[in-house]
Fold this sequence. Notes:
Blueprint lengths: L1 E6 L2 E5 L4 E5 L8 E4 L2 E6 L2 E4 L8 E21 L4 E21 L2 E4 L9 H8 L22 H17 L1
Antiparallel strand pairs: 1-2, 1-5, 3-8, 4-7, 5-6, 7-8, 8-9
Amino acid sequence: MYAVIKTGGKQYRVQPGDVLVVEKLDGEPGAEVAFGDVLMLGDGEAVTVGAPLVDGAKVNATLIETRKGEKVKIFKKIRRQGYRRTRGHRQTETVLRVTSIEGAGKADKWDGVVSLVTKAVLNARSRNLKLEEPAVPTPVAAEAPKKAAPKKAAAKKTEAPQADAE
């Protein structure tokens, strides 16, 4: 089963289990996102087209990450005038995993587990690199108390010079 949804002014053809990169959506990683703007549903040869939306159809997805996209360079030039300008831009985007499609009396779910691993970590793994994970602060109670063993060694050193002085 597949669906055509509309988000961010664009249309996407999705199936359960697909990874989708769309314009930025609000939410934290792991949040559920529901799309009600379903333009078309398809299941084999049976196709349901909305006018303009399919009634009661819904596509559910899980938000994996929000990141910046690829760099876009804007270069302007007027020849023989000494005019050159360079600007750049990186659009924010959201990565989603489609988990289910419901509508037209049918439902299709993805049975896999949604992994919240970011694209940067996946790229590092593919190149056999170790990516430094952000440090998680440990609680103070979990730290082991230090023993007073070095004090005994310091006491012996102070006694030896006194014995030589006598």
